[in-house]
């Protein structure tokens, strides 16, 4: 863990204008957090309704702050202007740092990262919020891989303090420094980690999801597993956590992990079996994002 005043922060260039690509669960959360802590952010998606959902979520979170008397309605309105929704790359030439938060698919990420690199200045730091895909691998098609690193937030962004800053093979110290400083300006606790599929947290978490998925496939009751894990001391069990993460995202991330660590990812479908999580996707039970996962939501 790099404390304040570490060598990373001493080198950091301040981030005055940020951008996030994707206005989904994570993109919306990142936009809210940046806006809330005072860094203006462009929020780009390819779908109008995704932008609407991202903004609705941010408004809801700001309104809660007003309810708790932590913000006045005037302050809320002002902070909301820090989020600028967009469907185009106009104004990206003034952006200091971009967080890519589109779907967990290497091909889509490759296309989006190459596209955005052509729209920003030479000094702009590009980061990816990928859960699992190697940063060195994502840097392969970039012209300026030294300006690229991972910036991995956790869900829900406004509540989870940790951010993994992932150093790829060609990532420069300056890119790491700027990303660490931005994470801290967002009120988060950054840790700098080396690159591998899943980085640190998901390398531990996904084999756990695999174990859970195997138990369910063998007939175990998911609610009982959740209760047991809560009694074990975790704030929530794996079924509820998967509902929060999103089943489709977990399947995509599980595939990347199974490719990287086949021996550890039994239960996630890497061995050719359909995982219990994939079965949920087949039944369109994606989790909280569509109000039905292992549990049902209003
Ligand atoms: P999501 O499905 O909620 O949102 C993805 C968004 O990306 C959608 O709104 C989609 O319209 C948009 N999108 C797709 N292609 C695009 C493009 N070319 N340009 C702009 N927007 C585009 O997914 P999510 O859960 O927010 O996950 C996003 C990323 O964050 C993934 O890489 C995921 O692995 C990672 N992540 C997810 C979690 C989690 O718990 N869900 C946690 C940490 C990291």
From TrEMBL:
Domain of life: Bacteria
Domain 3-hydroxyacyl-CoA dehydrogenase C-terminal: 198-297
3-hydroxyacyl-CoA dehydrogenase NAD binding domain: residues covered: 18-196
Stated family: In the N-terminal section; belongs to the enoyl-CoA hydratase/isomerase family.
Name the UniProt record assigns to this protein: enoyl-CoA hydratase
Lineage of producing organism: Bacteria, Pseudomonadati, Pseudomonadota, Gammaproteobacteria, Oceanospirillales
Gene designation: fadB
Shown chain mapped onto the complete sequence: 304 to 601 of 729
């Amino acid at each position: 863990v790099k404390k304040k005043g570490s060598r990373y922060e001493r080198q950091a260039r301040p981030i005055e204008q940020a951008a996030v690509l994707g206005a989904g669960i994570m993109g919306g959360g990142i936009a809210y957090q940046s806006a809330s802590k005072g860094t203006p952010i462009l929020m780009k998606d390819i779908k109008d309704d995704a932008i609407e959902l991202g903004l609705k979520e941010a408004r809801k979170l700001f309104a809660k702050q007003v309810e708790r008397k932590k913000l006045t309605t005037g302050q809320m309105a002002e902070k909301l202007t820090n989020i600028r929704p967009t469907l185009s790359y106009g104004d990206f030439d003034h952006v200091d740092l971009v967080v890519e938060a589109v779907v967990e698919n290497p091909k889509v990420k490759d296309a989006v990262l190459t596209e955005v690199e052509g729209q920003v200045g030479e000094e702009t730091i590009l980061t990816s919020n990928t859960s699992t895909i190697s940063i060195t691998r994502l840097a392969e098609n970039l012209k300026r891989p030294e300006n690229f690193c991972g910036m991995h937030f956790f869900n829900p962004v406004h509540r989870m303090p940790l951010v993994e800053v992932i150093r790829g093979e060609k990532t420069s110290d300056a890119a790491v420094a700027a990303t660490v400083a931005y994470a801290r300006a967002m009120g988060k606790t950054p840790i700098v980690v080396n690159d591998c599929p899943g980085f640190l947290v998901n390398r531990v978490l996904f084999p756990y999801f695999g174990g859970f998925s195997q138990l369910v496939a063998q007939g175990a009751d998911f609610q009982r597993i959740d209760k047991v894990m809560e009694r074990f001391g975790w704030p929530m069990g794996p079924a509820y956590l998967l509902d929060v993460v999103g089943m489709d995202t977990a399947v995509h991330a599980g595939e990347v992990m199974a490719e990287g660590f086949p021996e550890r990812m039994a239960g996630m479908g890497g061995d050719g079996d359909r995982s219990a999580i994939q079965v949920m996707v087949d039944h369109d039970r994606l989790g909280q994002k569509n109000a039905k996962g292992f549990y049902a939501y209003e």
